[in-house]
Structure formats: structure tokens, C-alpha cells
Design brief:
4-stranded antiparallel sheet; single chain; 6-stranded mixed sheet; globular
Length: about 290
């Protein structure tokens, strides 16, 4: 029995509330995709009826061979490419109807890093902060935090044209985080980097995920996906062919590692690949 005035019942109740809130967050879908399609002129099906969910705070890997539809799908998730049909919700917001709300919640580090060669890292970060309408004091706080996170404090006032490939990737990551997004989309973040720079990027991404940020990663490095991702979907020819945790996928497909799963499920034969004779010209596609 508890004595009069004892705080134990309140403490137990408080812990139950915290545990319940944690469990609710762990089961919330922050990304919901239903029957998503993208068809280009000439009846070219880039994405065909894709459906999947990503849990809040999760680390999700989206894999597939070149031309599978990964980048098109990712671009539709943040409304950079208009979908043909289907539904995409980001943190409960339908992307085509609430693009401003969606853009507040996502950061996007593109496959190709495009930086202003005649600006410093600090200048570019200040500009991005103003574009997101952040208060000046918040911008400076975010710049200081992010430069430390990606270990670029010493070169913050140098022109980005002087940066190495690894430095440019780390800075691109910092830029995508200036507005404190809930979801970070990473398109081939370690492509072209040496093993040391790759491990450094891995560490930064892990730290962000441990702080509660949802990570959506595309990569061609199977060891990267196996080391980082909690759940994985593999796409081929515009459709998701398998999904699950790395361990589940290896068990399901009787594979020793994720690369073997990838080879078994994509079924791509490079020698038999053909060009797309129905593809529209790139200038017409860019206007869609």
C-alpha cells in the first residue's frame, strides 16, 4: 500500500503516458503511398501502381537498378514531378493539395550536387534560411549547428568551388537541413566518394536518425543499405518487387546478403536491355 502523499501512483501513470506516446509515434506512418503511377507520353510507364508506407523516425531504403523508377518516385513524393494517378501523403498532407506544408517538412539532397561556385558555404546557408522565412537569429543558430555536424566549420567562409567531392556532399546535406525537416530524402548521397568520406556521411545520417528524423535513402551500394536501413523496398521496372527488413529479405529469398537479394529479385539482364523507342524527347519531359 502507498502512504498518504506518496508520489508513486503519479510516477507510474506518467511513465505509462510516456510509453504510450512513444508507441504511438513508432506506429505512425509519416509517408503513405497508394497506387502511385507515372506515365509519360508514348504510354511509357515509369512507375506502375506503387504502394508502401514509411514509419515516423524510421530509416527506409529504396533500391533498384538504373531506370527502375526510383528517382521518379522520390520526386513525386515531394511534388517535384506530377503524378499521373494515386495518392501520396507526407505527415498526413496530400502532396498535390498541400505542397507548401509538404515542403516545410522535407529536406532533399539531390543526386547531383549543384552549388554556387562564387559563394561561400555560410552565404548559401544564410540565403536558404531566408528562403524558408526563418528569423535571422534562428538562421545563425542553424548554421553554427549544421557546420559543426558536417565538420565544415573551418571552411565555412571559403568559396564552395574549392571544396572536394566529399566536402560538397556534406555541405549539400547541411543545406537540406537548414529548416529542420521531419523527413530527409537522400538520393545517392555517397556516390563517387572514397571509403573514408562515405563512412563520414554514414555517421552524420545515423546521428540525424537517432535524433528522430525520418530518412528515405536511395543507393546502389548494397552494403550501405544493409548497414543503415531498418526497412527496404526493392523496385524494378516501375514496380516494388519485394520489401522488408534486411534480415527478412535475406531469409525470404534464401540469400547470404542484400546484394544477392537484389540480384535475385530485380532479374535485370544488362546484355538484353533495350532502348525505349517510345520515350518522349527530354525537352518535352522537362516541361511536365
Amino acid at each position: 500500500m502507498f502512504r498518504s502523499g506518496c508520489k508513486a501512483p503519479f510516477t507510474i501513470s506518467f511513465r505509462v503516458v510516456i510509453l504510450t506516446e512513444h508507441m504511438a509515434k513508432a506506429t505512425k506512418n509519416i509517408i503513405e503511398v497508394r497506387n502511385l503511377t507515372k506515365t509519360y507520353p508514348g504510354n511509357v510507364h515509369a512507375v506502375s501502381g506503387v504502394t508502401f508506407d514509411v514509419k515516423e523516425g524510421g530509416f527506409f531504403g529504396f533500391l533498384g537498378p538504373n531506370g527502375a523508377g526510383k528517382s521518379t518516385t522520390m520526386n513525386m513524393l515531394v511534388n517535384l514531378v506530377k503524378k499521373t494517378s494515386g495518392s501520396v501523403k507526407i505527415d498526413g498532407f496530400e502532396v498535390t493539395e498541400n505542397s507548401d506544408e509538404v515542403h516545410k517538412r522535407v529536406g532533399f539532397a539531390m543526386q547531383e550536387v549543384g552549388l554556387d561556385e562564387v559563394a561561400t558555404a555560410r552565404e548559401m546557408m544564410e540565403l536558404h534560411g531566408r528562403l524558408y522565412h526563418l528569423p535571422p537569429t534562428v538562421i545563425q543558430e542553424r548554421i553554427a549547428y549544421l557546420l559543426k555536424l558536417v565538420e565544415l566549420e573551418k571552411v565555412a567562409d571559403k568559396f564552395t568551388s574549392t571544396y572536394s567531392g566529399g566536402m560538397r556532399r556534406r555541405f549539400d546535406l547541411a543545406l537540406s537541413l537548414i529548416h529542420q525537416p521531419k523527413i530527409l530524402f537522400l538520393d545517392e548521397p555517397t556516390q563517387g566518394l572514397d571509403p573514408h568520406a562515405r563512412q563520414l556521411i554514414w555517421g552524420h545520417i545515423r546521428e540525424l536518425n537517432e535524433q528522430g528524423m525520418t530518412i528515405f535513402l536511395t543507393t546502389h551500394f548494397m552494403e550501405e543499405a544493409e548497414a543503415l536501413c531498418e526497412r527496404i523496398a526493392i523496385m524494378d521496372r516501375g514496380q516494388i518487387v519485394t520489401s522488408g527488413s534486411p534480415a527478412e529479405l535475406m531469409k525470404k529469398h534464401a540469400a547470404k546478403n542484400l546484394e544477392e537479394v537484389f540480384l535475385k529479385t530485380t532479374g535485370s539482364n544488362l546484355a538484353n536491355e533495350e532502348v525505349n523507342l517510345k520515350a518522349t524527347d527530354p525537352y518535352a519531359r522537362a516541361r511536365m
